[in-house]
Batch of 4 targets.
Target 1
Amino acid sequence: MDFRLSEEQEALRESVRDFAREVVAPAIAEHYEQHTFPYEIIRQMGKMGLFGLPFAEEHGGMGGDYFALCLALEELARVDSSVAITLEAAVSLGAMPIYRFGTDEQKARWLPKLLSGEALAGFGLTEPGTGSDAGGTQTRAVLEGDEWVINGSKAFITNSGTDITSLVTVTAVTGTRPDGSKELSTIIVPSGTPGFTVAPGYSKVGWTASDTHELTFDDCRVPAANLLGERGRGFAQFLRILDEGRIAIAALAVGLAQGCVDESIKYAKERQAFGQPIGAYQAIQFKIADMEMKAHTARLAYYDAAARMLAGEPFKRQAAIAKLHASTIAVDNAREATQIHGGYGFMNEYPVARFWRDSKILEIGEGTSEVQRMVIARDLGM
Ligand SMILES: Cc1cc2nc3c(=O)[nH]c(=O)nc-3n(C[C@H](O)[C@H](O)[C@H](O)COP(=O)(O)OP(=O)(O)OC[C@H]3O[C@@H](n4cnc5c(N)ncnc54)[C@H](O)[C@@H]3O)c2cc1C
């Protein structure tokens, strides 16, 4: 058992860390405040190859693996989560369904620009009336001749409305199975298709420099060839995508938790109270020690889940554990980092305020903490 990174992995981590500190950190506060999408940062991340990390070179990828993506996400989120979630959603939710389930034609048409970061794709699963219970999907797609006609709406879809969004994959009911249950399928809807409307961006508590919209489909027609993979495989497809995505979200949460440690150490050494730096008080040292312990153990949990996935072993339970633990400790660390910063921690100009606002969604997105517990309990035979 060896948890040390290879030279190549270490080099990737270093280069993303430098990029986060030198390029993301100086520019992101303004985007966060103004709720604007950081196109220039995303363009540079594309040039670095981050959007192609876990994909084969024959499709325009970097020939790395999912763990490489996780390392990059951790380093980005250590500085900023809006940029990190944009990459996470673009790769593991946007491009991955086409990479895993698409036809050769679909891959050739869509992947090159998605993997270079010149285009983004959204993953349209959640609906206004149903999130955790994805089987409750109401959006319908009916095959009329050689076209799917889609009607319904989707809620909270990341990367669905940027200037460079090229498509959204939409989960829809396409029929009824012999046992009476819904037949779910996934359909590719290109941006700009008539009948596909993107609502203005939500006003969010956190991740304010990321792109999130409600989408509506009103007699939206796309070619029959836009079906992703087999008809009726929609449920299995999104379960696989979400299982993997949980490891990536865990890595992002670890990054945020570690960023809280970084900022807290810096502040505790500078801030004076009662004649000495607050970092000299054991109460503050213990908070920081606990924060480091939590970030470290959550990192081991996502390393383990990623290692199992890459080895082709079952990883559903470990991915849910990693996501549940990492998101919980990210919220803990953000709260404690804010506490260590006192009143300044409540001021938006301090990174810890951003960490605090960005942490809560980690316990909700890509499966709530309750859903992770359901997955773990089910895997334990309950
Ligand atoms: C910023 C942001 C970005 C997002 N990006 C995307 C995206 O790109 N694509 C996408 O498809 N979705 C996206 N989502 C949606 C996200 O995945 C859902 O919000 C999440 O899955 C929860 O669904 P819900 O909001 O409908 O909550 P609900 O499912 O309504 O849950 C409400 C509460 O009830 C609890 N609950 C539900 N069922 C049970 C049960 N059986 N037992 C115990 N408790 C239960 C939940 O845990 C939660 O606490 C995004 C959300 C946000 C906020």
Target 2
Amino acid sequence: MKAMSAIDSRQSPDEILASGEYPLSRKDLADIAAMIYADAGIYLNDSKASLVYSRLSKHIRNLGLSGFREYCALVSSQEGAGARREMLSHLTTNFTRFFRENHHFEHLRDEVLPGLLNRARSGGRVRIWSAACSDGQEPYSIALTVLAMMPNAADYDFRILATDIDPKILAQARAGVYDENALETVSPAMRKQWFREVDAGGRRKFQVDDRVKKLITFNELNLMAQWPFKGNFDVIFCRNVVIYFDEPTQMKIWSRFASLLPDAGHLYIGHSERVSGDSKNLFDNIGITTYRYIGKSAGRRA
Ligand SMILES: C[S@@+](CC[C@H](N)C(=O)[O-])C[C@H]1O[C@@H](n2cnc3c(N)ncnc32)[C@H](O)[C@@H]1O
């Protein structure tokens, strides 16, 4: 595996790649990139210098440190474990939206859920995984799609697992409280039925109803680490996260997903992502960023 933002012999480690309050040298960036790659699989190269600078400089000031060098020393030390976790929260991108890439939710509703809901009604188990759920808008959109078809889905063995590496964003997801503008992509009927207005320190916000939350379990999970699952998932949403990983890491993730899907299980990925390389043989591409696992019995295609 190539080192992230590795410094080659023609480059000066002291060259300043971004500056303002504190200079960010190539060596600082290489150290930060190596840590975030080891911790989360996120690939950063020199083109991300201003992003790293803008995400971390305020944090460095709050910690009362003299600059990026001292910060790198802290986050790579044992005492700096907490600061290193914070670094991860600062460097991950949490952008999400209710019903983002709505064609996935339409496909789920029209092609996938009818069969899964029938199975649940006849006593079967159904599991859906939202595998980088950010502040919860993705798993809540899945739950709202399910509830529109079966309002009492929580009475059956039908559950959505929603995971993310970032505990801070997961706390927001569990709370399920959003600004009104976040709800722009939620239909008026769904808003009325499944959200209630709350006063959040004088600001008008909207909270997801407990009947929706009941369908979802939120857990911390690093896609790079071991996954603690016993059973299969019928559907996996893993959208707009592997784009931050390098190609070999993406390929590993696709085949790990395949190992968790039943024959003809579905995988939805982000708009700029593609199942690529050898993993392409594991899936049929059946729509825009929509894949169906070909199944263990079908074997690998040539
Ligand atoms: C851009 S958001 C995508 C949210 C949602 N899936 C969507 O498409 O709207 C990416 C999320 O991936 C999470 N993430 C980054 N690296 C991860 C990793 N190694 N394991 C699990 N989650 C990760 C981030 O914390 C962030 O919340």
Target 3
Amino acid sequence: MTNEELMRRAIELSKTSVRNGGGPFGAVIARDGEIIAEGSNKVTIDNDPTAHAEVSTIREACKKLGTFDLSGCVIYTSCEPCPMCFGAIYWAHLEKIYYANDRKDAGKIGFDDDFIYEEIAIQPQYRKKPSEILLRNEAIEAFKMWELKDDKTEY
Ligand SMILES: [Zn+2]
């Protein structure tokens, strides 16, 4: 399938999602033009705030391929990924992101993508949601254990 055909499939999934009570977002993960996995936003359907189209599709693709590493695959998403999905795409090692609507379009219909991107750019102490460091000296022990572990699976 061409890039346009794969994106049209993601857009179709976003429309189907609206009809079925989900958010207006769809995504497709493909390798060499072949669809590996499809997904749509299921936040309100599954009561899962992390069930964005991209995250759902990454989970599905990883399950199908039996790996946590989607190197060699690309994602087509009907909207520019929010910071959570953007991070997930990097963690999954997807090669490229194609998106259609952008974060400003999403903001216009009431989604927080752009606001969260703005928050990330601000120093933690000035963000709307406060962050506070607590018990770092105890938590660091797990990092030391990881560093010394010889048989770890790195990702
Ligand atoms: Zn997202």
Target 4
Amino acid sequence: MTTLEFRNVTKRYKVRGAGDMLALDDVSFSLESGQTIALVGQSGSGKSTIAKILTQLERATTGEVLLDGKPIPHRGPGLRRYRQRVRMVFQDPFASLNPYHTIRHHLERPLRLDKVVPKDQVESEVMALLERVRLDPSATVDRRPHELSGGQRQRVAIARALASRPELLIADEPVSMLDVSIRLGVLNLLADLQRESNLGVLYITHDLATARHFSDRIMVLHHGVVVERGDADGVILDPQHEYTRALRDASPDPDRHFAGPAGTASLRS
Ligand SMILES: Nc1ncnc2c1ncn2[C@@H]1O[C@H](COP(=O)(O)OP(=O)(O)O)[C@@H](O)[C@H]1O
Ligand SMILES: [Mg+2]
């Protein structure tokens, strides 16, 4: 069991000519392997700041991030090893893949750098990764990102994140840049992978409807403060905070939005 803990984290950004900007105010939570937590909030609420601190692209101003009870390393081989265990999937699959490199290159790189498998197994591991994200390996492996659709690209980004065999995955709005029609397929894939590999997933979204269907727990972030948290159904069906109610009322009913006319199918089906 792996536990990642965010303890009393505050983040201030220095803004030129405008003093400090308080992006996170005393945020605490923990994420365990096998668990999916949704972090929900509107644009500017501080979601990506949490993701960046978790992956050490940003440093907390005060507070701590602990992996299995130990402060996470800020640099060097310790940070490398940490990033192998805790991987990030970014919002924009166009920006996160290098247009000059093939899909094979993108997947081989972490396999080689992190020495995940012996050299003579790298090729077969690349193909297995593509299969895991439900892409046709031989039709995909020698292409470059621009030859794929947005959804296929995000699947490659997910395969790359899985290459290092992480224990935890931080997915920062993984489908918000994709066409509405293919979002569900990518989310279902993430849910399947989570179960297959007992991954812990922090699913970051502004959409309460998908949050409920893909997570055990929901945390609601408003202006850098966690205003509500609890099991997913409880937060949606009986929100305690005014802001959560406003988010819910602004969000389409998941059953109406995603399911068939009977309105009974779940997103996982
Ligand atoms: N590098 C930065 N410098 C200054 N302010 C920033 C920086 N990154 C984010 N912010 C500000 O911090 C707040 C939270 O941003 P962010 O974490 O990106 O929110 P979200 O992902 O929920 O949209 C916003 O007001 C944003 O403008
Ligand atoms: Mg963001």
